[in-house]
Amino acid sequence: MSRVALVTGAGSGIGRAAAIRLSQAGLRVVLASRGAEALAATAQACPGPTLAIPADVTDPSAVDRLFDRAEQDWGGVEVLIASAGAGFSARIERTSDADWNRMLELNLTAPFRCLRRAVPAMRAAGYGRIVVIASTASRIGEPYLAAYAASKHGVLGLVRAAGAELAGTGVTVNAVCPGFVDTPMTEATIGRPGPLGAGGQAADRAADHARGGGRRRVVLRRQRGHHRAGDQRRRRHGPVLTPLADRIVLITTESF
Questions:
Q1: Residue 249 phi/psi, 5° resolution?
Q2: Torsion sign (Cα): 243, 244, 247, 253
Q3: Does residue 137 contact residue 122 with C-beta atoms inside 8 Å?
Q4: Which residue is catalytic, options 148, 156, 241, 256?
Q5: How many CA atoms lie within 13 A of 110 on its CB side?
Q6: 148 annotated active-site
Q7: What's the pTM?
Q8: What is the distance between the alpha carbons of residues 155 and 255, in angstroms, rounded to a whole number?
Q9: In a domain, 240, yes or no
Q10: What range defines the domain where residue 155 resides?
């Protein structure tokens, strides 16, 4: 029986591309997102079995229901991709408590709840792969992104702590820290101020960039190159958006 993966934020962007790639690799994929129509579109793009469950991961009870349903239908979740997230851009003095709390709830607390719910079964099975989609904002500060950067710094700390705690159990915890990627979340946060790199849509291009990556572990590598030119364009035009698949090399069948 193929392994079970659960992807949050599977309705668009990186989450959708990851879900499709996992399905192509032969996994059964549980798709979670708030929008039922977006989930249906992702499920249609996946070649293998999917279980689409609309869920708002900022609701603690929704996270429990999501995992309960997955376990009831397919058994324990063995691969977790925590991709649900949102961005927010504003000056510090124009960032309200509601804005701040929304970033922390979705980008930090929701991944924590998913990890907390997934880990017991993974630990008991002696196998688990957890990948959190973080950001370059997890490592550096950017103007006008105080709430977003704080939430992403926090989630990288969560990943590091969980990885250290679960070392030796057969459960690995990793983060991917992409820069600006051509996804709906980025457009909603900063618009499209800079020139786009060449390439197609995220779901179409992700598989073209897949590479091998070690035994029994999830490997998501960040593509390198074009950083110097991108930095120069960014100074002139603002953030440079990159097609998603040019940033992320997704998962191979050997990884599982």
A1: -100, 115
A2: negative
A3: no
A4: 148
A5: 31
A6: yes
A7: 0.75
A8: 24
A9: no
A10: 4-187
Percent pLDDT > 90 in the chain is: 62
In a domain, 222, yes or no: no
Residue type, 104: L
Instruction: Please write the tens of the pLDDT for every residue from 153-208.
Output: 999 999 999 999 999 999 999 999 876 555 555 555 445 444 333 323 333 332 23
Identity (one letter) of the amino acid at 82? A
Q: 180 is written with which tokens? A: 């600006």
CATH code, 12: 3.40.50.720
Residue 12 is which amino acid? S
The more confident residue out of 222 and 19 is 19
Task: Give the integer Cα–Cα distance in Å for 135 and 114.
Answer: 18
Q: What is the pLDDT of residues 40-71, one digit of tens each?
A: 999 999 999 999 999 999 999 999 999 999 99
- The answer to whether 100 and 147 have CB atoms below 8 angstroms apart is yes
Does any domain span residue 128? yes
Domain count, the chain: 1
Given a cut of 60, is residue 124 above it in pLDDT?
A: yes
Task: Tell me how far apart the alpha carbons of residues 99 and 89 are, in angstroms, rounded to a whole number.
Answer: 10
Sequence-distant contacts of 191-198: CB under 8 A, at least 24 apart: 192/241, 193/237, 193/238, 193/239, 194/233, 194/234, 194/237, 194/238, 194/239, 194/240, 194/241, 195/233, 195/237, 195/240, 196/241, 196/242, 196/243, 197/226, 197/240, 197/241, 197/242, 197/243, 197/246, 198/243
Does 39 reside within a domain?
yes
DSSP state of 133: E
Q: Cβ distance 53 to 43 under 8 Å? A: no
